[in-house]
Design brief:
164 residues; transmembrane helix; coiled coil; Cell division protein FtsL; membrane; transmembrane
Length: 164
Amino acid sequence: MNALRSNLLGSRLRQLGWVVTLALCSALFVALTFKVNSVRSEVRLAERKIVSLQREKVLLETEFETRASQQQLAQWNAVDFGYQAPGADQYLEGERQLAALGEPRAINAPSPIRVARAEDDQREMKLPAMVSPLTGKPVQHPTDEQGLAEKLANGGDFLAEAHP
């Protein structure tokens, strides 16, 4: 009986050892999972920071290039062009002030460019007679309602006068 008891006790100790080992492994696995997720989160934050810094770098490079070109333009303006910003006295109140700035034409000045334009009367334009592409005969357009009614009654053949 002692042997059976000791065998049973050893079996229970082994089972208890396996349960403790399994619990310890599970606890280590959970701790490792939390650690991995923590590191993964830090990596994502670092990547976002890198992307943000790269965008800021591009923005600063663009700003630097813009300011350098502004200095170059200012130097060219001072030496070559001599442009100045408009002053308040250069703005006009309306069309009358603009017209007052005009000067009469000089004696040898070329004549102004003129644009052709049609008269604005209500004359009816005369178009050439339409010819049917099928028969080669002129197309007759009914101008009054009675002629239109007759054409519709005859089959509505407006394009080709195919009646013999």
